[in-house]
Automatic annotation (TrEMBL):
InterPro entries, alphabetized: HATPase_C_sf, HATPase_dom, His_kinase_dom, HisK_dim/P_dom, HisK_dim/P_sf, PAC, PAS, PAS-assoc_C
Name the UniProt record assigns to this protein: histidine kinase
SUPFAM superfamilies: ATPase domain of HSP90 chaperone/DNA topoisomerase II/histidine kinase, Homodimeric domain of signal transducing histidine kinase, PYP-like sensor domain (PAS domain)
Gene Ontology MF annotations: ATP binding; phosphorelay sensor kinase activity
EC assignment: 2.7.13.3
EC category: transferase
Chemical reaction(s) catalysed: ATP + protein L-histidine = ADP + protein N-phospho-L-histidine
Entries under NCBIfam families matching the protein: sensory_box
Gene3D superfamilies from the UniProt entry: 1.10.287.130, 2.10.70.100, Histidine kinase-like ATPase, C-terminal domain (3.30.565.10), PAS domain (3.30.450.20)
Taxonomic lineage from the root: Bacteria, Bacillati, Bacillota, Bacilli, Bacillales
One Pfam family, short name: HisKA
């Protein structure tokens, strides 16, 4: 027991002594805990400043000398605390020459106007590296309202400045791409109003950029393509991406401009923003005109071949008709009836040739509408089943759960399917099977018809689709040409692959539309 404790015990007695001793010990524990908390808080504050690369300073404004310079600033400025004497002059001396004059002016202006100080400037460290800094300060006035101190912070924002410079460089590159691109680059809101338009829009369409920004995409579409654009726009908003589409627009002179368009939905970059649509379009008017010129030349070249084929196909039944007409002058009544039946068959053959030629000459889509493929193909299977049973052929189908949709003339597409399935049946001489399947791709639907028939020779496969060319003993050779013409009018294609002794597979590709239905 200490002398102090002995005196307290003698003066106040045991009870009061114990109370005073308890309070003293409790106060000491609280004091140690408070000191520990303060030390921990100071340490955390220093760590935060170090991690944030944030230092603080205090400047006496009457003498412009540095009263305080935090340890973090020595590290940020890259100077040695033992040799560097912080002062306003030494800081200004380390400023980048392009920033020093403005930095001094901003400080004097803040002091003169008694306003907060906020500035960005660069520091050149002793090792030659550059530090980008952001300083903020508050003017402290005395009792007379005169500026006395500047309390401030300085933060190293070199990393942020580097990111900003990189972002600015990317932005400049994007601006140059948009400015000098011959393609049409645009950003639209979800209503189709233009937010950004490349100058190529004005060059190609002839409208001013300001005018086009005050209207919507739908104001320039060809009336006949408006429905397709609307369908594509709705599909884009639902799926996030669009199929590549070929659409016609009208320029300022009301001339048709054909664009190939690809678009994507851009999600909002941050809360409160709206999604946008990025579109890249290419003028393919000249290319399509050139392709059409080539097609016309090809058609003119094919006219001679077709004329020879028509003459051959029709001359044979005409020769038969002529012969029987001559025989009828000398024939009996019974023979005349027999001759008449044969003549009717030949006339029907001529009529079939003429009808297929007319179909070959009509590439239009006719009465186009949305067609749900699974019900459509099941109807085709039902239609061909009686003939398949007679030929001892099984028809199988493999369809997805939901029915994809195409847009076209159902009657013409039905004719395509009947022609192809009949060809498959004729390739199966003694039983076999035909399979119908659907494969969905990003922009297309593929109908696959395959059989395990005799197959097609490579030489014959290369000529399929030529008018009047056929490998069958009967037929005109126009059926497949008509199918190709119909599919071309629907922006579709037909591809045939075959292997002798294995079978044949036909792929019909058609653009898909947005409508889906449950099977």
């Amino acid at each position: 027991m200490t002398l102090t404790q002995t005196l307290l015990l003698t003066i106040f007695g045991t009870g009061l002594f114990s109370f005073i001793l308890f309070q003293t010990l409790h106060f000491r524990r609280q004091t140690r805990l408070l000191k520990s908390n303060i030390s921990h808080t100071i340490k955390s504050y220093q760590d935060i400043k170090r991690i944030a690369k944030l230092g603080s300073y205090r400047i006496h404004l009457k003498e412009y000398n540095m009263l305080y310079w935090s340890p973090e600033l020595y590290e940020i400025f890259g100077v040695d605390p033992l040799t560097f004497q912080p002062s306003l002059q030494s800081v200004i001396a380390m400023m980048h020459p392009a920033d020093a004059e403005n930095g001094s002016k901003r400080l004097l202006q803040a002091v003169r106007n008694k306003e907060n100080y906020d500035n960005h400037y660069r520091i050149i460290r002793p090792d030659g590296t550059i530090c980008y800094g952001h300083t903020r300060g508050e003017i402290v006035v005395d009792e007379n309202g005169e500026p006395t101190y500047l309390l401030g912070t300085f933060q190293d924002i070199t990393d942020l400045a580097a990111m900003q410079q990189e972002l600015a460089a990317v932005h400049r590159k994007l601006e140059n791409i948009i400015a000098y691109s011959s393609d049409l680059i645009a950003v639209f809101d979800l209503e189709g109003r233009a937010l950004i338009l490349s100058p190529s829009h004005k060059v190609l369409l002839g409208y001013s950029i300001d005018r086009m920004k005050q209207t919507t995409l739908f104001d320039y579409i060809h009336p006949d393509d408006r429905e397709e654009l609307l369908e594509g726009w709705q599909y884009l908003l639902q799926s996030g991406v669009s199929r590549r589409r070929t659409l016609r627009f009208l320029d300022a002179q009301n001339r048709v401009v054909i664009l190939e368009i690809q678009a994507v939905l851009i999600p909002p970059a941050q809360d409160g923003e709206s999604a946008t649509v990025l579109s890249i379009s290419r003028d393919i008017t000249a290319r399509l005109n050139a392709e059409e010129a080539v097609r016309k030349a090809d058609r003119l070249s094919a006219v001679g071949q077709m004329a020879a084929g028509i003459a051959h196909e029709i001359r044979n039944p005409l020769t038969t008709l002529r012969g029987f007409l001559e025989l009828m002058d000398l024939a009996s009544e019974e023979s005349i009836h027999r001759y008449t039946a044969i003549m009717k068959q030949e006339i029907e053959h001529i009529n079939a040739i003429v009808e297929e030629l007319l179909l070959l000459a009509k590439p239009t889509r006719g009465d186009a509408r949305h067609i749900s493929l699974i019900p459509f193909l099941r109807e085709m299977i039902h239609l061909m089943t009686p003939q398949a049973l007679l030929e001892r052929v099984d028809i199988f189908s493999y369809f997805p759960d939901t029915s994809p949709c195409v847009y076209g003339d159902e009657q013409h597409l039905r004719q395509v399917m009947i022609n192809i399935m009949k060809n498959s049946l004729e390739a199966l001489h003694d039983g076999g099977h035909i399979t119908l399947a659907i494969r969905e791709e990003m922009e297309q639907v593929v109908i696959i018809v395959s059989d395990n028939g005799i197959g097609i020779k490579p030489a014959d496969l290369a000529r399929l689709g030529e008018p009047f060319y056929t490998t069958k003993s009967t037929g005109t050779g126009l059926g497949l040409a008509v199918c190709q013409q119909i599919l071309e009018a629907h922006n579709g294609t037909l591809h045939i692959s075959s292997e002798l002794g294995v079978g044949t597979q036909i792929e019909i590709r058609l653009p898909r539309c947005t409508m889906h239905s449950e099977d």
